[in-house]
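dumping this here before i forget
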Amino acid sequence: MACYVRLMRREDIAQVTEIDREAFPTLWPPVNYERELENRLAHYIVACDEEEKVEESEVEAPLEKDPPGLASRVRRLFNYNRFFGHELPKSGKQYIIGFAGFWIMVGEAHITNIAVRELHRRQGIGELLLIFAIDLATKLNAHIITLEVRASNTAAQSLYCKYGFTQAGLRRNYYVDNKEDAVIMSTENITSVPFQAHLQRLKQAHSRKWGIALYQIAR
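structure:
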């Protein structure tokens, strides 16, 4: 399956909310993504299936054009389509298979969520979203990235460690559903030469494993 990543739009809210409810059923209250898109601190990206489309009736959120300058920001921040020489889908309501979001405050990006539809897990999509989240945070002048992950979620912790995150602390009884602890993880300076060199190696390895089409970025 080929997919590409772009910034989240208002027309994506219904699908993103659906994925959120599937991935985080115990989170309450649910995230208001319409409000998040209006939050200047928040940044969201979505992974779309290049081939599958969504019917008109399936999209309940109001369709609006991107805010002024958003498309040009995407072209400036991510020009992977030019680099890899791929043509991207022209228009239509793409089927979203995953999303990621983070807030930026005072040079620190805090990842709030990374979620993938259950049917599309274990296909490299979550890792792809992490890669693009790191890239976007770098372009937005963040220097470190932090996140919380369930203490029992060793698979996610392993992925984050792979990308340079280390344990920075513990939040006791953080998750309201079962009072599970949250492991706080953080990177070193993501703009440093060693971090970026390591990231490039991981990108290449991911591309070889899952296919170069994964690195398309929408205009």
